[in-house]
Automatic annotation (TrEMBL):
GO MF annotation terms: nucleic acid binding
Protein name: Tc1-like transposase DDE domain-containing protein
Top-rank taxon, per record: Eukaryota
């Protein structure tokens, strides 16, 4: 299990621990939360990863009346409430829900270790892993699925032009809109509710404000 998987598994558990402390009117700090999670064996990572997890959840650390505490940002509460209301309404109407997400993989990804056999002739070993040099081209993988499993013709794999940084930087709003319109919409069940995250390329401004006013714009 990699660090990203562990990170996601602790997401809801950490939120519950914080809300439990609020209900008991306890002051929540990073060190106190870390101690609580260590005691019940739900979190075995360090303080740095816990702070990163709290940031990803959407919690902010602020001072009120000379005391620091974590609080959830109002716009995140509003977004979660809106999402849950839409999901509940969609289920009441018995309409399908599908989830869209993306990830990446390097072309040269593979195992670093493998079982080998003893070579009785040379005294060495047979088999093993032949590792390719470098990570290879980066592939962006986008898929849509739900209770019905993966939806046919909606799993898209394409090569990134660059191989550095976050894969989100390689997908533009225009590219995503083209994939969404031509490959995804024609294949999802009719009247489906499509759930996606707030990646930068999942929404875009049609007409951006000019960054600098030139003489012709005055």
């Amino acid at each position: 299990m990699n660090s990203k998987t562990r990170h996601l598994q602790h997401f809801d558990a950490t939120r519950c621990k914080i809300y439990d402390s609020y209900e008991q009117k306890e002051h929540v700090t990073t060190l106190k939360l870390l101690k609580i999670k260590e005691d019940d064996s739900t979190f075995n990572e360090g303080k740095t990863l816990l702070k990163r997890l709290l940031h990803d959840i959407g919690l902010k650390y602020r001072m009120v009346d000379n005391r620091h505490y974590y609080y959830e940002q109002p716009h995140i509460i509003k977004q979660r409430k809106s999402y849950l209301c839409k999901i509940r309404q969609n289920r009441a109407n018995n309409k399908p829900v599908v989830f869209l997400d993306e990830t990446w993989a390097n072309a040269h990804n593979g195992k670093d270790f493998a079982r080998v056999k003893q070579d009785t002739v040379t005294g060495g070993t047979l088999g093993g892993v032949s590792s390719l040099s470098g990570k290879g081209k980066r592939l962006i993988i986008l898929g849509v699925g739900g209770d019905m499993g993966w939806i046919p013709k909606t799993i898209l794999i394409f090569q990134s032009k660059k191989n550095t940084g976050n894969y989100n930087d390689k997908m533009t709003g225009e590219h995503f809109e083209e994939l969404f319109r031509e490959s995804l919409l024609p294949n999802v069940p009719p009247n489906s509710l499509i759930v996606m995250d707030n990646a930068s390329f999942n929404s875009r401004i049609e007409e951006e404000m000019p960054k600098k006013v030139g003489p012709s714009q005055r």
